[in-house]
TrEMBL record:
<dbReference type="InterPro" id="IPR016182">
    <property type="entry name" value="Cu_amine_oxidase_N-reg"/>
</dbReference>
<keyword id="KW-1015">Disulfide bond</keyword>
<keyword id="KW-0186">Copper</keyword>
<feature type="domain" description="Copper amine oxidase catalytic">
    <location>
        <begin position="129"/>
        <end position="526"/>
    </location>
</feature>
<dbReference type="GO" id="GO:0048038">
    <property type="term" value="F:quinone binding"/>
</dbReference>
<feature type="active site" description="Schiff-base intermediate with substrate; via topaquinone">
    <location>
        <position position="284"/>
    </location>
</feature>
<comment type="subunit">
    <text>Homodimer.</text>
</comment>
<protein>
    <recommendedName>
        <fullName>Amine oxidase</fullName>
        <ecNumber>1.4.3.-</ecNumber>
    </recommendedName>
</protein>
<dbReference type="Pfam" id="PF01179">
    <property type="entry name" value="Cu_amine_oxid"/>
</dbReference>
<keyword id="KW-0479">Metal-binding</keyword>
<dbReference type="GO" id="GO:0008131">
    <property type="term" value="F:primary methylamine oxidase activity"/>
</dbReference>
<feature type="active site" description="Proton acceptor">
    <location>
        <position position="200"/>
    </location>
</feature>
<dbReference type="InterPro" id="IPR000269">
    <property type="entry name" value="Cu_amine_oxidase"/>
</dbReference>
<dbReference type="InterPro" id="IPR015798">
    <property type="entry name" value="Cu_amine_oxidase_C"/>
</dbReference>
<dbReference type="InterPro" id="IPR049947">
    <property type="entry name" value="Cu_Am_Ox_Cu-bd"/>
</dbReference>
<dbReference type="GO" id="GO:0009308">
    <property type="term" value="P:amine metabolic process"/>
</dbReference>
<comment type="similarity">
    <text>Belongs to the copper/topaquinone oxidase family.</text>
</comment>
């Protein structure tokens, strides 16, 4: 990235354009090299689009250049380093562009504490997480053992990490879980923004952009780190130290019941084992957490943070496809559409995918005379393909094993995939955006397992013309019922930026829960020791002298 940035910033044609800006003293130029995208089937050159910014801060390296976008954008050919052209960016409400003018000085919205003008930090007392007897987990090589869970973790240059061979209480549940792709299409229709569609795994890689995580910052508590690996531009392998962190954390209560007759309570706290990585893909950060819970469930969590990708906008102009987030700076509407590849092994590899709708029972004089009944209706996915979303029938997706009947419920054991209905990709079905990311059109896909089918939009996404992943594999032909199958869960979120997302965005969090559904013969977490204060050692706050000791943990058991 550094070499590309230098190539652009030092090119005579770019310097010519920079000279026209007549930048004041103390202001410099910075650029972000961007994936070029696709709008022409005949374009075969590997191209890079550079978005240009003013760097304020009087030479401070952490000044927020994204606050000061410029209106010209050079294009270079990768590898040959040939200059191709300069695109000019619109600043008004339509597609019109203008030649480069002297830069009009506007304040920079800074995020770094040295520069952000927040002179009085909040008073925050330490909140320490300690495990005086050591953690409850063991790690031997790649194998993690914790609270009934056994699984392996491996780093991946493309996916960040994958977990595999996942067992709970001695039973197989999943063979492999990983993020498989993320596309980020933008909604500003004007050139050259119509090509803004990143594939952050296929074009870049979450492992190779993985952060070196730090104790007490990225990960709190008693932490086990794993390294990742990348390829240096000179072809040599390089280590990314501590790019995956693993630790336990408390997540409130798991269950509670108070017998109001005796005032005895059973209370168990919910503890999670977190496997986390953080990727910095230029302006944005993505925090990927896989959280293993003591009740046999898994929470797949994405937190988007970092800095919005910004565009220039003239004073007093508004546009319907973006939010003005600072002086003369606009953040276009966009979508983050992730695909998680979930390779199940629910009590073995022969699994089926079903979807259950909850529907009204027809009114009936004898059975349902008051018209209040409702039941579930089950449908099976027979062939490789997708499932339509249906939020108003409370549609739930489940992976079941038809060969294994739960002795209590008398139906197949399974796991449900809990994910709320979400808007999928908005671009036109004929657009390159959709043709390149067919996976982004549907929330749940099912394919037959095949080696090497790992990435939802296909192996090669940079300037791709078509989705060579699910667009090919979800063929409507392969039988997937009672087969070794793969589920692809699309986590889509449409991001309409808000002023508060700038200059650095508080996390936006989205989750997919994998929850045992008639898999066990009762709540599998009854063996968790009951919560009590001899163990948890909480103390009363000394901020309000009138407060009385709480009886919430009182028990005579
Ligand atoms: Cu966003």
């Amino acid at each position: 990235m550094g070499a590309l940035e230098e190539l652009c910033n030092s090119h005579p044609r770019v310097l010519e354009e920079v000279a026209k800006l007549q930048l004041p003293k103390g202001y410099q130029i910075r650029n972000d090299p961007w994936i070029y995208g696709t709008d022409d089937p005949n374009e075969k050159r590997p191209l890079v689009q550079f978005f240009m910014y003013v760097l304020a801060g009087d030479g401070h390296s952490e000044s927020n250049h994204y606050s000061l976008p410029l209106k010209f954008s050079p294009v270079f050919e990768a590898y040959t380093n040939k200059f191709v052209r300069i695109d000019y960016l619109p600043g008004g409400f339509d597609e019109k562009t203008t030649p480069t003018q002297p830069w009009q000085k506007v304040p920079c919205v800074e995020y770094h504490p040295d520069l952000n003008n927040e002179t009085i930090p909040r008073d925050v007392k330490p909140l320490l997480i300690s495990q005086p007897e050591g953690p409850s987990f063991k790690v031997e090589g790649s194998k993690v053992t914790w609270q009934g869970w056994e699984f392996r973790v491996s780093s991946s240059a493309r996916e960040g990490f994958a977990v595999y061979d996942v067992n709970f209480k001695g039973r197989q549940v999943f063979y492999r879980i990983s993020l498989s792709e993320m596309t980020v299409p933008y909604g500003d229709p004007r050139a050259p923004y119509h090509r803004k569609q990143a594939f952050d795994l296929g074009d870049v890689g979450f492992g190779v952009t993985g952060n070196h995580l730090n104790l007490g910052c990225d990960c709190l508590g008693v932490i086990k780190y794993m390294d990742g690996y990348a390829v240096h531009p000179n072809g040599e392998p390089s280590v990314i130290p501590n790019t995956i962190c693993m630790h336990e954390q408390d997540d409130g209560l798991l269950y509670k019941h108070l017998n109001y007759r005796t005032n005895n309570a059973v209370v168990a706290r919910k503890r999670e084992f977190v496997v986390q990585t953080i990727a910095t893909v230029a302006n944005y950060e993505y925090i990927i957490n896989l959280k293993f819970v003591t009740d046999g469930s898994i929470d797949i969590e994405t937190r988007a943070t970092g800095i919005l990708s910004t565009m220039p906008i003239d004073e007093d102009v508004t546009v319907p496809w973006g939010t003005i987030v600072g002086p003369n700076v606009m953040a276009a509407y966009h979508q983050h559409i992730l695909s998680f590849r979930i390779d199940p092994a629910i009590d073995g590899h022969k699994n089926s995918v079903v979807y259950d709708d909850v529907v009204k029972l027809p009114k009936d004089d004898k059975l349902n005379p008051f018209g209040i009944g409702f039941v579930t209706e089950r449908k099976f996915v027979e062939k490789a393909g997708h499932i339509d979303q249906s939020p108003f029938t409370n549609r739930q997706y489940k992976i079941i094993n038809e060969n294994k009947i739960n002795p209590i419920s008398k139906n197949p054991v399974g796991y449900k995939i809990m994910m709320p209905a979400r808007q999928m990709i908005l671009a036109d079905p004929d657009s390159f955006n959709v043709r390149r990311a067919k996976y982004a059109t549907e929330q749940v896909w099912v394919t037959k397992y095949r080696d090497h089918e790992l990435y939802a939009a296909g192996e090669f996404t940079n300037q791709s013309q078509n989705d060579t992943g699910l667009g090919v594999w979800a063929n409507g032909i392969d039988p997937v019922r009672n087969e070794d199958l793969v589920v692809w869960a699309t986590m889509g979120f449409t991001h309409i930026p808000r002023v508060e997302d700038f200059p650095v965005m508080p996390v936006e969090t989205h989750n997919i829960h994998l929850v045992p559904f008639n898999f066990f013969d009762k709540n599998p977490a009854l063996d968790i020791p009951q919560a009590n204060n001899n163990f948890n050692k909480s103390i009363l706050a000394k901020v309000d002298t009138k407060s009385e000791p709480s009886a919430c943990c009182k028990t005579n058991l």
